[in-house]
């Protein structure tokens, strides 16, 4: 293995996040020792390379051909592996700091188009009315079908105060929409909160970044200062696409008992088989003070509800899964996105890197998150009648070449029944007349149901089967996780 420069611990997907674990120099020669090389295929590659150089209709630079070959090889593996050129690598590092020049949208690739997972709050995209589920089909009038996700993102990035036109296909509209946006410095304020009823607080984390943990501590202290006798807390992780792994561990540790396991990983190499605990060294480094030491003691025991939806991915799923396994909080909302894979960034040169999927994430009780997500304890849709934009969103399992869930066989896709087709049509028609709910507002139906649950009032559960039969139904509150080493070995055997 190469020497580690520093721990980035990134997880998630899209424009800002999308990587995890550690930043490393690749010791390629060392790794290749003992591995047989497919000489016939390498010879074929060399022949095709020479053919392009000599016969293609116009000259092509060597660097361009080789970069595209590398990019194609890596991106063909799964939706989250990618080659990062100079610009992409720089933007990735900037994104972890919570600021970058762009439009403010989290995206993934679907059917050759860029699909909006979630617009970042108070960004050009959110102000322009871009919705989760929108498909970006053209950038400045040029079709983007066939571009890689990284190439499409490059086109959306640019200099501040420059204009860009996005052509959007929306399931709720009959014709494409052209939206004009102005690029700007996106500064994400990932934590907000307020007292939403006497004795009850709402705490929202929109993404996990470097400042998130300290910002959360400040916000919780401010909430307790405003209302020292809090009787309940709603942690809102809806449309949170992920971010930094230490942030997810720290947020979990704020509410869990000391030193318990929060999440584990398992992959092909030994270094990918790890367990992360609710200890300072896992969320704040081995040197320095513990930011969680500033929290009021009551936060460890205040009754909690965690809100999730299809836009909740990666780091937010780690937090929801850990609090659910220990029965520390009730999970309310709809099934999460299912992004449970680890992307390790291997630095190739000073300015380029490869983002490679190297492991899967598991909750403390060993549940695999990948392509399944977190099922809520109480299934509650966005609106009282069970309709809303959440029904129109896709999940990790819908992406082409997604990594499978190694803990159980994925169900084969089944044809929709006539009733389901009619229901989809009805949801689309309804969405034409509705607008996304503002999280934290009085009109936020899921938040109101979370408050009902905390107050002991009946919750208006969506009329579907009650979820969460596989979690800690038989485990006591704050039950210790199973032996992490045993879990990862079993995971490896089941792959």
Automatic annotation (TrEMBL):
Under the heading CDD domains, the entry gives:
cpPDZ_CPP-like, Peptidase_S41_CPP
Q: Which SMART domains match?
A: PDZ (SM00228), TSPc (SM00245)
Recorded protein name is S41 family peptidase
Q: Which residues form the PDZ domain?
A: 89-157
Q: Which UniProt keywords apply?
A: Hydrolase, Protease, Serine protease
PANTHER family to which the protein is assigned, alphabetical: CARBOXY-TERMINAL PROCESSING PROTEASE CTPA, TAIL-SPECIFIC PROTEASE
For this chain, the family text in UniProt reads: Belongs to the peptidase S41A family.
State the NCBIfam families in the record: prc (TIGR00225)
């Amino acid at each position: 293995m190469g020497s580690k420069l520093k721990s980035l611990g990134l997880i998630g997907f899209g424009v800002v996040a999308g990587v995890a674990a550690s930043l490393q120099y690749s010791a390629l020669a060392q790794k290749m020792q003992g591995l047989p090389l497919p000489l016939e295929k390498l010879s074929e590659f060399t022949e095709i390379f020479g053919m392009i150089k000599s016969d293609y209709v116009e000259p092509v630079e060597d660097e361009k051909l080789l970069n595209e070959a590398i990019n194609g090889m890596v991106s063909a593996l799964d939706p989250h592996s990618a080659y990062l050129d100079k610009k992409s690598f720089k933007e990735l590092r900037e994104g972890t700091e919570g600021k970058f020049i762009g439009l403010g949208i989290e995206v993934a690739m679907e059917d050759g188009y860029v699909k909006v997972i979630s617009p970042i709050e108070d960004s050009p995209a959110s102000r322009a009315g871009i919705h989760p589920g929108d498909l970006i089909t053209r950038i400045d009038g040029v079709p983007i079908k066939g571009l890689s996700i990284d190439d499409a993102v490059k086109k959306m990035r640019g200099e501040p105060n420059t204009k860009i036109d996005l052509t959007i296909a929306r399931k709720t509209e009959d014709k494409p929409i052209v939206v004009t946006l102005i690029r700007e410095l996106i500064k994400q304020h990932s934590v907000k909160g307020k007292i939403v009823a006497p004795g009850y607080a709402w705490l929202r984390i929109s993404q996990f970044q470097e400042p998130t943990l300290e910002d959360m501590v400040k916000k919780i202290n401010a909430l307790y200062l405003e209302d020292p006798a809090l009787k309940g807390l709603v942690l809102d992780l809806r449309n949170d696409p992920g971010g930094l792994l230490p942030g997810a561990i720290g947020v979990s540790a704020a509410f869990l008992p000391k030193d318990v396991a929060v999440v584990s990983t398992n992959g092909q190499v030994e270094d990918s088989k790890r367990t992360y605990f609710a200890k300072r060294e896992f969320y704040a480094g081995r040197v320095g003070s513990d930011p969680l030491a500033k929290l009021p003691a009551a936060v460890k025991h205040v009754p909690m509800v965690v809100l999730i939806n299809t836009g909740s991915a990666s780091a937010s799923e780690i937090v929801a899964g850990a609090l659910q396994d220990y029965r520390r909080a009730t999970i309310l909302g709809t099934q999460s996105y299912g992004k449970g894979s680890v992307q390790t960034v291997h630095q190739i040169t000073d300015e380029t890197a490869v983002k490679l999927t190297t492991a899967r994430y598991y909750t403390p009780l060993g549940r695999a998150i990948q392509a399944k997500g977190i099922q809520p304890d109480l299934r509650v849709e966005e609106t009282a009648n069970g309709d809303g934009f959440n029904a129109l969103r896709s999940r990790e399992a819908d992406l082409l070449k997604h990594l499978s869930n190694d803990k159980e066989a994925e169900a084969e896709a089944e044809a929709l029944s006539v009733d389901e087709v009619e229901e989809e049509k009805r949801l689309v028609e309804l969405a034409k007349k509705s607008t996304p709910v503002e999280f934290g507002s009085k009109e936020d139906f899921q938040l109101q149901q979370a408050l009902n649950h905390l107050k002991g009032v009946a919750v208006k559960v969506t009329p579907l089967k009650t979820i969460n039969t596989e979690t800690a139904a038989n485990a006591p509150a704050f039950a210790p996780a199973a032996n992490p080493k045993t879990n990862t070995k079993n995971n490896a055997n089941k792959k």
